[in-house]
Amino acid sequence: MPDMPDMPELPPGAARTSPEGARCGLVAIVGRPNVGKSTLMNALVGQKISITSKKAQTTRHRITGVRTVEEAQFVFVDTPGFQMKHATALNRNLNRTVQSTLSDVDVVLFLVEAGRFGMDDAKVLSLIPEGKPVVLIPNKLDTVHRRSDLLPWLKSMQERHPFAEYVPMSAQKQADVDRLFQIIKPYLPEQDWFYEEDALTDRSEKFLASELIREKLFRLTGDELPYNSTVVIEKWEEEGNLRRISAAIVVERDAHKGMIIGSGGERLKRIGSEARQELERLTDGKVFLELWVKVRSGWADSEEHLRSYGYE
Ligand SMILES: Nc1nc2c(ncn2[C@@H]2O[C@H](COP(=O)(O)OP(=O)(O)OP(=O)(O)O)[C@@H](O)[C@H]2O)c(=O)[nH]1
Questions:
Q1: Model pTM?
Q2: pLDDT value at position 42?
Q3: How far apart are CA 94 and CA 286, in angstroms?
Q4: Is the CB of 53 inside a 6 Å radius of any atom of ligand 1?
Q5: Residue pLDDT, tens place only, 188-198
Q6: Cβ atoms within 10 Å of 288's Cβ, excluding its own
Q7: Whose CA is nearest to atom 1 of ligand 1?
Q8: Is 34 annotated as a binding residue?
Q9: Is 272 annotated in some ligand binding site?
Q10: Which portions of the chain are predicted below pLDDT 50?
Q11: What is the predicted pLDDT for the residue at 132?
């Protein structure tokens, strides 16, 4: 059976429903790991399409979500986080992805943690091409006790970069998220919509499934598991409303394999059963999920492996 097709790429002008004065543009969300990019994108798109987790570096793919608000259509590109400590091929790839993603967007949302600007944030800022409108989003504002403490910090940020807008907010607050749409709307060019009004994402169901298994994997192994473990969907068959999925969790070391399997296979069973339940909700059908763990030593260092796993 075929995979769920990705949404076809419509050239500008092909959407049939653009209203008078339509705007449409690409919006990138960037920031160091764990700053709240996935949380913000999920809030903006209004549906869980990217996976949030306390584990840094959970977003490795470019993910596009689409949201139409009044006459404006926002096409979101969620770019990967950064891993500064380990300079592997994986990270070089991430930086390339970030830069190529940013070269063709209309506006960049640059997330930092309100009141903080470190080397890791500076590195992200330095990858944004010159001349792009950049909206500074000091996120997690709810964790700042006195808002007035933020003023000198905001002033210092003004000196770092000529940001187009300053929008301190909390990605977890709906009112803040709604306000953000209005603020970034003028940065979208006036043109016809790229997608139908109710389009949510152009990612396939298969991709979402692998991200979902990854989320369960990281949730249930806590901080023990290195971020560069990955999930590869090896079999995907559909029979009516039933999906038979076989997925491999690829890790670097035998020790990690044991960690995932757990004593008596308990942990792997739990990862599988939680992922299956959520996949059934996602696909609105029945799912047989077979999970297994593979050791692929040093895979994060090999450009070739990266290509075969689809990270180019
Ligand atoms: N208090 C608070 N926590 C937040 C907010 N936004 C996100 N978080 C939390 O911050 C953590 C990281 O959020 P993510 O959305 O996964 O961050 P990310 O930038 O996508 O992370 P990577 O995928 O590692 O790049 C999660 O535990 C979120 O619940 C916020 O506005 N306030």
A1: 0.64
A2: 80
A3: 35
A4: yes
A5: 999 988 776 66
A6: 13
A7: 140
A8: yes
A9: no
A10: 1-15, 48-63, 81-87, 202, 310-312
A11: 93
- Is 101 marked as a binding-site residue? no
79 lines ligand 1 (CB under 6 A): no
Hey, what are 132's tokens? 């792009």
Q: Please write down the HEC assignment for all residues of the chain.
A: CCCCCCCCCCCCCCCCCCCCCCEEEEEEEECCCCCCHHHHHHHHHCCCCCCCCCCCCCCCCCEEEEEEECCEEEEEEECCCCCCCCCCHHHHHHHHHHHHHHHCCCEEEEEEECCCCCHHHHHHHHCCCCCCCEEEEEECHHHCCCHHHHHHHHHHHHHHCCCCEECCCCCCCHHHHHHHHHHHHHHCCECCCCCCCCCCECCCHHHHHHHHHHHHHHHHHHHHCCCCCEEEEEEEEEECCEEEEEEEEEECCHHHHHHHHCHHHHHHHHHHHHHHHHHHHHHCCEEEEEEEEEECCCHHHCHHHHHHCCCC
User: How far is ligand 1, taken at its centre, from the CA of residue 47, in Å?
Assistant: 16
Pairing mode of beta strands 72-78, 63-69: antiparallel
Question: How many whole angstroms from its chain centre is CA 209?
Answer: 14
State whether CATH 3.30.300.20 applies to domain 205-308.
yes
Half-sphere exposure (CA, 13 Å, Cβ side) for 68?
19
State the pLDDT at residue 149: 86
Going by CATH, does the domain composed of 23-187 fall within 3.40.50.300? yes
CA–centroid distance, residue 219 to ligand 1 (Å): 14
The residues, any chain, with a CB within 8 Å of residue 60's CB and separated by 6 or more, are 80, 94, 230, 311
Give residue 170's Cα distance to chain centre: 17
Domain ranges of the chain: 23-187, 205-308
Q: What atom of ligand 1 comes closest to residue 52's alpha carbon? A: 16
Question: Measuring from atom 28 of ligand 1, which residue has the nearest CA?
Answer: 36
Identify the pLDDT of residue 247: 93
Ligand 1 atom at minimum distance from 139 CA? 31
